Amino acid sequence: MINLVDYKNERQYKTVFFETFGCQMNKLDAELSLGLLQEDGYSIVDKVEEADVILYNTCSVRQHAEDKVYSHLGALRTLKKKHPDVIIGVLGCMAQKDAQSIFKRMPHVDLVCGTRMFTRLPELLLKIRNHGNHVLAVDEDEIVDVKRIAAYRPNVYQAFVTVMRGCDNYCSYCIVPYVRGREVSRTIADVEREVLELVSNGCREITLLGQNINSYGKSLPGNITLGDLLIELNGIEKLERLRFVTSHPKDMSRDLIRTMSQLDKACEYLHMPAQSGSDRILKKMHRGYTAGYYRELIQYARDLMPTIKVAGDFIVGFPGETEEDFQETVCLMEDIRFQNSFIFKYSTRTGTKAAELTDDVPDEIKKKRNTTLLDLQKKISLEENKKLIGRKLQVLVEGASKSDPNKLSGRTRQNNIVVFKGQPALVGTLVDITINEATDLTLFGTI
């Protein structure tokens, strides 16, 4: 047990290098973690060589993400030998899944901290510093409850807010329910308090996060829904925009779509993974809907919100996927005309139901199908973006453009990236931009 008096008096100068892999939830967990560490006296550095503590916040959704982390960890062996006092830690989904086996594979790692234990990071690091032993913290029953430090976030004008954690869907390919746990929703009052604090600190756009955000409120008394939460937050003064991700088609209701269409701050944007256009594959994935139902939902949303944009996710090469199944996915992408899509080759996740199936689609076929969808999406994105040339769009200015620091960049309500010339004083404001050029990824315009 740590002596809390010693813990509170431990305020020596410390530095931390922190790298995050994976989804928006991971990025928010990283932000919350860094806020806690900064409160505890840590300074953030950009190079591992300058850090007293090196932390990787990990993802387990794809094998590639795990391989990348293990590669990074392997490269730290020499540094650890040279500087044995440096603390190396693995956080997040991979830590929750692999737990003790990380120490066996990478004995120079000091800390393995799961998805529900990052709120105790300062305490865990002090324990390692004082006692020098491996620390494993992957408690599956720990409730994630961290007071957000509103001032600690990378962008003053935008913020992610977690409204629920976990997932009860158990799609056959997905590791998330096993590493993030069952669904637990925060109360509307709790979420509203956090949003009010963020807005009072200058935030103008909030993105609500949940692994299965459409089922928000299921664990709360009184038949609370995500629509109820959106209505409450829509009334907050000085908040300009509301978004939410990620939506599961099975749990997306027409009531929620209607509510979106009626709220002036709810952005006309949906990230709703389709995963496949084949009903046979969707059934094997345990997705709980058909491609036809997906099309109906999108059409209903577009009838109410003609300017709405939709982003999707797809998995190619799922066990048993035939060329006919794949062509049905191509057809769905052509019909929906997604703004953008995240496309992945199937990789087996140990412990999932799909891991019991034979991974029978050759890798070269997976690569070919992946490339086909990427090329099709790029073509569609370019065509759709060119339709916006000559239009005037409202943009929330985020800062300097990554591709050209002499220009500014921001996003439309539909989540289009827009680059334009303007003064730095415009950052954090809403401006109208006339679009005069477009690529598949970016719009360019003038004030």
From TrEMBL:
Residues 386-447 form the TRAM domain. One of its GO terms (cellular component) is cytosol. Its cofactor is [4Fe-4S] cluster. It is found in: Cytoplasm. The keyword ATP-binding does not apply. Keywords: 4Fe-4S, Cytoplasm, Iron, Iron-sulfur, Metal-binding, S-adenosyl-L-methionine, Transferase, tRNA processing. Binds 2 [4Fe-4S] clusters. One cluster is coordinated with 3 cysteines and an exchangeable S-adenosyl-L-methionine. PANTHER family: CDK5 REGULATORY SUBUNIT-ASSOCIATED PROTEIN 1 (PTHR43020), MITOCHONDRIAL TRNA METHYLTHIOTRANSFERASE CDK5RAP1 (PTHR43020:SF2). This is tRNA-2-methylthio-N(6)-dimethylallyladenosine synthase. It comes from Kuenenia stuttgartiensis. The gene is miaB.
